[in-house]
Design goal:
The chain has 4 domains: about 70 residues, no CATH class; about 90 residues, no CATH class; about 45 residues, LysM domain (Membrane-bound Lytic Murein Transglycosylase D, Chain A), CATH 3.10.350.10; about 210 residues, Glucose Permease (Domain IIA). It starts with a helix and ends in a 7-residue tail after the last strand. Helix 5 crosses helix 7. It has 9 helices and 28 strands. By secondary structure, it is of the alpha+beta class.
């Protein structure tokens, strides 16, 4: 009995639970969970919070940053570069307001404005970046930089392809370009960075690598352009580039006038390739003939010298206004030079180291690509004193002794390349640098005008040339002083 009673009870209980489950399944309505579409705000990878509207935050930033708008004269201010706003779907509802986000980020990371990033690839390991507000300013600055080294007329004629054929003296430009890659792209720029806002400021930056020029000098009564340049370790050509309103090294300056003495340091090198035609006066050489039948006090002119005239054309490669390579293309001799011959008495006299007349160390015509004095070094790009004169553009590369003497040294150094030094036994020594070939040997006695080497580009140099350095009684002098 009991066993049957328990079985019936178990069956009834099971039926009850089944009916209950079926009932609940038919009548239960689950509670619906809403999925929200919000925006997750990050700053520097860290979560700031959820907001309902991305546009509301951006509009608030733009509205609040009136000071930035006024300072840069822009219409819109953008979020910091480290701010990310991502759309998310979430069951969460813990949103914060755009104002709360703004208050939290405003002092953590600077806001941005729309502008342009300019890059200059100075070498494979170094890239210079700077920022500008207006793309048009770059075009103006590039033009202003180029016309620091060329005249407006020359540059416009080149751009418009209407250069006149050069019959007399003048230049025909074949190419103008930056020696480094210059690129520009639109960017959102942090207001913490230096942003160049106008073309004049950008022009200064292109030419001097800085936007503010503080290197100025007030002209004194006794000053000349040459003396001001020397005082401030500038070459005269660099001084004229830095002061475009002063057209010539012979220009008169007013006492108290303020001039720019900042060294030229372009952010990208300006290269100008051209053919340059010039009429050269070919100076005659003075040669001495010793006559042992005459006393030392006797001398006479056996042949009167006269200068020649040649029209020459050079192919020239200039960087930042400096000639770094020149080749003679053609020479039209209009009038040949005639040497002066002077007979000097040598009876019972031994002449050692005559310093009256000096031979030119190369053939003629020639060009002087760099003078004695301060300049921007073409390789090191710093202000440096140039200890001699650089001579190039010759028909022959033969190098000659400028006076009788003894070869004191014939060697090589990393800066001078192959070089020869001659002691002239009269207080003067001369050094001939960057030679391709040295011919004269140490201890050799050489005569004025004797071939001692061949011009080259060894050591630290930018092109084939001769660097000539002169010492007088141990003091370095301007080599051209010997030929005045």
């Amino acid at each position: 009995m009991n066993k049957d009673k328990y079985s019936i009870s178990s069956i009834l209980l099971g039926i009850f639970f089944v009916v209950l489950v079926v009932y609940l399944g038919l009548t239960f309505e689950p509670r619906e969970r809403k999925i929200n579409s919000y925006y997750q705000v990050y700053l520097g990878g860290q979560k700031i919070g959820l907001i309902k509207s991305k546009d509301e935050l951006y509009d608030l930033i733009d509205e609040e940053q009136k000071e930035i708008k006024n300072y840069y004269n822009v219409n819109k201010v953008y979020p910091p570069s480290g701010l990310e706003v991502k759309k998310v779907l979430t069951y969460k509802n813990n949103v914060i307001t755009a104002k709360e986000v703004y208050n939290e980020i405003k002092d953590l990371d600077p806001f941005t404005i729309e502008g342009y990033e300019v890059s200059v690839t100075q070498d494979k390991n170094k890239k210079l970046k700077f920022y500008i507000l207006n793309k048009e300013d770059l075009d103006v600055a590039v033009r202003n930089t180029i016309t620091s080294f060329l005249s407006e007329e020359e540059y416009d004629a080149y751009l418009n392809n209407n250069q006149k054929a050069v019959k007399d003296d003048g230049m025909e430009i074949t190419d103008v370009y930056f020696d480094q890659a210059v690129t520009i792209k639109k960017a959102y720029i942090s207001t913490e960075k230096e942003i160049i806002t106008d073309s004049d400021e950008l022009s200064r930056y292109f030419l001097f690598s800085k936007t503010e020029i503080t290197d100025t000098y007030k002209v004194k009564a006794s000053d000349t352009i040459e003396s001001i340049a020397e005082k401030n370790k500038l070459g005269v050509p660099d001084f004229l580039i830095a002061n475009p309103s002063i057209r010539s090294e012979k220009a008169l300056l007013a006492e108290g006038q303020e001039v720019n003495v900042a060294p030229i340091n372009p952010v990208a090198d300006i290269v100008v390739d051209s053919y340059q035609t010039e009429t050269q006066i070919v100076k005659y050489e003075s040669k001495t003939q010793l006559d042992k039948s005459l006393s030392a006090t006797e001398r006479f002119v056996k042949q009167k010298g006269s200068n020649g005239v040649s029209k020459v054309v050079f192919a020239t490669h200039e960087v930042n206004g400096q000639i770094v390579n020149t080749k003679l293309v053609s020479e039209d001799v209009i009038t040949p030079a005639v040497d002066e011959i002077i007979v000097v008495g040598a009876k019972n006299v031994v002449y050692v180291g005559n310093s009256t007349f000096w031979a030119w160390p190369t053939t003629k015509p020639y060009r002087i690509s760099s003078y004695y004095g301060w300049r921007v070094h073409p390789i090191q790009h710093i202000q440096k004193f140039h200890t001699g004169v650089d001579i190039t553009g010759t028909k022959s590369r033969d190098i000659y002794a400028i006076q009788d003497g003894t070869v004191e040294s014939s060697s090589y150094s990393g800066s001078m390349g192959n070089y020869i030094t001659i002691d002239h036994h009269n207080g003067y020594t001369s050094t001939y640098m960057h030679l391709k070939t040295k011919i004269a040997k140490v201890g050799q006695e050489v005569e004025k005008g004797e071939k001692i080497g061949i011009m080259g580009c060894t050591g630290s140099c930018t092109g084939t040339h001769l660097h000539l350095t002169i010492y007088k009684n141990g003091e370095r002098i301007n080599p051209l002083d010997l030929y005045k």
